[in-house]
Each structure stands twice: as C-alpha cells, then as structure tokens.
C-alpha cells in the first residue's frame, strides 16, 4: 500500500532532508496527480501538533522503484489546506 511504502521509503528521506526525527509519521489526507507515474501530495502528522506537506513521486509499476520525496513544506497545522505545490 502507499501508506506502507510512504513510512518505509519516504519517512527516512524526509527526516534526512528536514533534519527532523519524527516519532509520529501518520498520513492524514492525500491528493494525487497522474503524470508518468503518480505524484502524491500528502499531509503528514509528525508530532502532537505539527504537520508537514509532502510531495512524493511514485514511478510506474514496471520501473520497480520506491517512492521518492520531491519536496516538502514544514510548519503546517491540521487545518491548513493541502494544495498542489
């Protein structure tokens, strides 16, 4: 599932690039955009009160590659709208 792949594949990429160690990493909501693969825009809870928005690319299945973190926005709240970025 995308949730499982996100935790194992995307969480370490995000932690490394954001300089954070997330005890919580729970997807709250996501949107997709179909490209040559799928772009996921995901709101993720990273602590009790902190959220981040992730842009994650998942290539086509025949390419057999895991999800790749494209970019992210930190300092979000649960109520911030998830938008394409």
TrEMBL record:
Which PROSITE patterns has this protein been placed in?
CYSTATIN
Q: Where is the Cystatin domain?
A: 10-66
Main localisation: cytoplasm
Q: One short Pfam family name for this protein? A: Cystatin
Q: Which UniProt keywords apply?
A: Cytoplasm, Protease inhibitor, Thiol protease inhibitor
Instruction: Tell me where it resides.
Output: Cytoplasm
Tell whether Cell inner membrane is among the UniProt keywords. Answer: no
- Asked if the Swiss-Prot or TrEMBL record annotates the protein with the keyword Transmembrane helix, the reply is no
Top-level division of the source organism's lineage: Eukaryota
Gene Ontology molecular function, alphabetical: cysteine-type endopeptidase inhibitor activity
Q: Which GO terms describe its cellular component?
A: cytosol
Give the protein family.
Answer: Belongs to the cystatin family.
Its recorded name reads Cystatin domain-containing protein
């Amino acid at each position: 599932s995308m949730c499982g792949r996100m935790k194992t594949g995307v969480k370490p990429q995000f932690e490394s690039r954001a300089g954070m160690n997330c005890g919580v990493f729970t997807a709250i909501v996501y949107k997709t955009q179909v490209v040559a693969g799928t772009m996921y825009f995901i709101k993720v809870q990273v602590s009790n009160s902190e959220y981040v928005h992730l842009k994650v690319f998942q290539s086509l299945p025949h390419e057999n590659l895991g999800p790749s973190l494209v970019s992210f926005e930190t300092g979000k709240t649960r109520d911030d709208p998830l938008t394409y970025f």
